[in-house]
Amino acid sequence: MSWRKEQRRAERGYHHGNLKEALLQAALGLIAEKGAAGFTFADAARMAGVSAAAPYRHFRDRDELLSSIAQRGFEQFEARLTAAWDDGRPDTVTAFERVGRAYLAFARDEPAFYNAMFESGLPVDANAALQAASERAFNVIRAAAERLAALAPPGAPRPPAMMMALHIWSMAHGVASLFSRGDAARRKLPMSPDELLEAEVLIYLRGLGFPTDRRPQANGAEPPPVPPEAPSGSGVPPGGPWGRPK
Amino acid sequence: MSWRKEQRRAERGYHHGNLKEALLQAALGLIAEKGAAGFTFADAARMAGVSAAAPYRHFRDRDELLSSIAQRGFEQFEARLTAAWDDGRPDTVTAFERVGRAYLAFARDEPAFYNAMFESGLPVDANAALQAASERAFNVIRAAAERLAALAPPGAPRPPAMMMALHIWSMAHGVASLFSRGDAARRKLPMSPDELLEAEVLIYLRGLGFPTDRRPQANGAEPPPVPPEAPSGSGVPPGGPWGRPK
DNA sequence: AGCTCATGTGAACGATCTTTACATGAGCCG
DNA sequence: CGGCTCATGTAAAGATCGTTCACATGAGCT
Predict the structure, then answer these.
(1) pLDDT in tens, B4-38
(2) B124–A178: do the CB atoms touch at under 8 Å?
(3) pLDDT value at residue B237
């Protein structure tokens, strides 16, 4: 019963040395397994090999641990979105879609973070730092949208970048949360969440008048464009994003 | 102390008479207040004036109560979406957008149901009846998308209706869950969630080649989506859904 | 060496979830 | 009407959790 605990104590001494970090890691694992709702403060302590009261030296309460995780999640999220955006290389539309895929990839690869960030039910404005981190992440999308909006086809009014960013965010979040995570992923779909989101974004961008066949902007490689065959008068490029060649 | 309990007992006798229903209602109220995570089986029992063990006569456990609520939610959801669709009257595009607004309205008006349905973390496939109810609700969107797809502009390949339905669902869910509920609604937006979703859907439909300007409907009161900044009718031909001419 | 303070422990409290044995009374059968 | 039965509710109890408190430990500074 208790030789275990004492064994652990023997291994690491009375003081853990890095309990805060250990708790965060433990919580992350637990959330990934059982969701933010099922995660337990006591469990995290047990997993770190300390008593149930120890965590209170590092976190005011369970919610603070949760929001620490969420905050860290937003930071990693921001980093991954930024990397995906890659300052709009090789061209704005391509990079923009890559951001969308990065969004989904994050939701898939880091279910615990995503859960803590978006599905744990903790108030967004509870923690100022958390809110700031969340905004920084969103600003990556926003900045990308800004660049995209600047490329809007001439002759038409520019779409507000903020609105575009919110639209893209809602699409990515909708797809991620409905189809790309946990049990939700079990809904049978005619296509993968990635394809679903990519098509959605492409159709949306086309609705804004963007050319959605990949166009090298200052770059050599010319990807094979869609075979033209439909009357261009309809304004609809032939071959939809859902059934693109290649 | 305990005169309360006895008072209640005096009022209603030893047997409650309609405890199952009372528990569902109580849970609904509690979820609306504190979210599905904060809702407590014991609380529901207390609110119904019975002992903490009584609910177990009607629900295997807390999750079954939750999924009963979710199921009922999906049924009401289906009903509201069906009513909004109104079999595609007066025209398909208008009705389709009305479905989108109904989605948001449901999320806003029935936060408890929405929470139980989409944010409570209960496994979709745990309960067959639940899954069926969920599918029936989705089928309303799917059927509407089917009709819409049939109207796809000639000359271009028809978009798969299933894909369109999934896209619309993801948009509606994304907007609802990010901007239209609880604390999330506190994120400051340049436009209301309704306007945001309406613009998003319009742009998307335009991307599919649908004509998105509303024809006169014999029903003057079609509120135009609010232009956040661009003066409408600025003379530029296509105009955006965020600032449409006409 | 000795002090101090951050860090961890154990015990304890109240709340929740859930099970178990027992109580009640509504509806049916004769 | 009288009695039986079974669905429905109760009380008590065990297990777990969040949280607090008094106390123990030992790392680092003087």
Answers:
(1) 555 556 566 777 778 999 999 999 999 998 888 88
(2) no
(3) 36
Kindly report the bases of strand D lying within 7 A of a protein C-beta atom.
7-13, 16-22, 25-27
**Which residues partner with B243 through β-bridges?**
B240
> Is the shortest CB-to-strand distance from A14 to strand D under 7 Å?
yes
Dihedrals φ, ψ of A153, to 5°?
Answer: -55, 135
- pLDDT, tens only, A63-115: 999 999 999 999 999 999 999 999 999 999 999 999 999 999 999 999 999 99
Number of structural domains chain B divides into: 2
CA atoms of B147 and A171, how far apart (whole Å): 22
What are the φ/ψ torsions at residue B240 (nearest 5 degrees)?
-105, 165
Chain-chain contact of B174 with A179 (C-beta, under 8 angstroms): no
Are residues A105 and A53 located together in one domain of the fold?
no
B171 CB neighbours in chain A (<8 A) are 167, 170-171, 174, 200
CATH number, position A22? 1.10.10
Do the chains contact at A159 and B240, CB–CB below 8 Å?
Answer: yes
Q: Which chain A residues have a beta carbon less than 8 Å from that of B170?
A: 171, 174-175, 178-179, 196-197, 200
Question: Residue A19 is part of which domain span?
Answer: 1-59
Q: How far apart are CA B73 and CA B67, in angstroms?
A: 9
Of A64, A60, A28, the closest CA to residue A47 belongs to A28
**Yes or no, beta carbons of B163 and A124 under 8 Å apart:** no
